[in-house]
Design a protein that fits this description.
The protein is mostly helical. It is built from 8 helices and no strands.
Length: about 200
């Protein structure tokens, strides 16, 4: 029990590191190289933990039926890409690609939804959808949309769009950005309808 608690705390710490690193990078943070070093440590931790758990799993196939283990597998792929970037002298990967790798790691935030309080879980679910969507929106729109210059702009736009408030002060200009919003809104509405359906069944 103590070991699980320690690992959960480490999971939270390293996930928050990646989260903070992504947000700072969207503000043209002066010390990007330092962020990358901390990211590398975080991803190394997640990779070692995944390999250890996979090695000790009795049923390797059943191991990947757990959505959280699939997410961790994606993190390992991100780690490999990250390592190739760090040790390659010829390849150059811009901040967009680095942030895409960070987003793969941030998918682990889904694990934070293991809460039994319905209201808090619903809030975290919406927050996670908005956050992940905002990350992709920034990747798609930054440099092409003059109204999205940092993470806060992307998060504001995504939240307003997903909750169907839609002030219209910011609109996506790229096809990828439009697809992200369509997909995010559909996920939100689908989740809302499912919640209402369960409530009516009770």
């Amino acid at each position: 029990m103590r070991k699980k608690m320690i690992l959960d705390i480490l999971d939270l710490i390293f996930t928050l590191e990646i989260l903070i690193s992504f947000i700072l990078s969207t503000y043209n943070f002066k010390y990007q190289s330092i962020l990358i070093i901390f990211d590398y440590l975080s991803i190394t931790y997640f990779t070692i933990r995944f390999i250890y758990e996979f090695k000790n799993a009795e049923d390797k196939i059943n191991f990947f039926k757990n959505i959280y283990n699939v997410i961790d597998a994606v993190v390992v792929i991100a780690f490999i890409l990250y390592t190739l970037q760090i040790f390659s002298t010829k390849a150059f990967i811009g901040i967009r690609v680095i942030n895409l790798i960070r987003i793969l790691v941030l998918l682990r935030i889904i694990k934070l939804r293991e809460i039994k309080e319905p209201a808090l879980m619903n809030f975290l679910t919406i927050l996670i959808i908005c956050f992940i969507s905002s990350c992709f929106i920034w990747i798609a729109e930054y440099g092409k949309n003059p109204k999205i210059n940092n993470f806060f702009d992307a998060f504001y736009f995504t939240t307003i769009s997903i909750t169907t408030v839609g002030y219209g002060d910011i609109t996506p200009v790229t096809t990828f950005g439009k697809l992200i919003i369509i997909f995010s809104v559909l996920i939100f509405i689908s989740g809302l309808l499912t919640t209402l359906q369960k409530a009516l069944e009770k």
